[in-house]
Amino acid sequence: MESYNAPIDLLKDKTILVSGAGDGIGKAVAKAYAQHGATVILLGRTTSKLEELYDEIVAANYPEPIIHPMDLQHASEQDFKVLGENVLEQFGKLDGILHNAARLGPRSPIQFFPYEEWMQVMQVNVNAAFALTKELLPALQAAPSASVIFTSSSVGRKGRAYWGAYAVSKFANEGLMQVLADELRQTSQIRVNSIDPGATRTNMRKDAYPAEDPNVLSTPEDRLPLYLYLMGNDSSEVTGQALKA
Ligand SMILES: NC(=O)c1ccc[n+]([C@@H]2O[C@H](COP(=O)([O-])OP(=O)(O)OC[C@H]3O[C@@H](n4cnc5c(N)ncnc54)[C@H](OP(=O)(O)O)[C@@H]3O)[C@@H](O)[C@H]2O)c1
Q1: 150 occurs within a structural domain
Q2: Does the model's pTM come out above 0.85?
Q3: Which member of 54, 62, 166, 227 is catalytic?
Q4: Can you give the residue range of the structural domain that contains 133?
């Protein structure tokens, strides 16, 4: 999929929500979606980062994005409901969601894993992805062809010691992806897949591997072809798949 060459109008007239759009992979993908014609809803917790990306997208003459500051750690059921209603009201449909925001949490043996940190990781990585999906489904159902992408990890496909809540949360994302893909396969035009981006030069990777030389890693921009392919109509028959960038 590294060789996928997205046509520049791949996402023209589509509206796509990207969570964790302010930094790292989410930022690069949100910008690429805008570059390929989408109106992107930039959801993230640090407003200044979202504003910076907004300015970059507008300066590049891509479709004007929407900033939606939201801390997934503390968002209430009502916050998710309001977002779903607003998207439907403002755009009449939603063509895609990239669930990208995530919290790494501590690396620790399960026996010593702090309760509070476990809950926080699950809240951001699993519960918020569920709530976003649930409340945005009416808008996704109103689109002619919609794509939902969950973000996984190698430790979300094969368990690894000390990766604790993060690994388990990524397994849960794979589970949510499979359940939803199966539910929607026969009855809707919504496809649901997951991406493991692989080791990528971001702040999260630096937190996980502080001693690593970041220059040996691929950049978020290197990961774009698969993110574009899965969001555009060329992948309209692909659902229920766990893919690696
Ligand atoms: N980088 C890798 O090597 C790698 C490998 C496998 C999987 N992944 C996955 O790829 C995705 C992107 O990771 P990344 O490496 O790009 O990490 P990153 O640079 O740390 O970006 C994560 C984004 O998620 C946002 N976020 C975190 N907590 C949030 C919250 N409570 N509410 C709203 N937004 C929140 C962050 O917001 P702030 O900017 O405000 O902090 C940030 O924009 C994640 O799902 C990660 O698990 C990454």
Answers
A1: yes
A2: yes
A3: 166
A4: 15-244
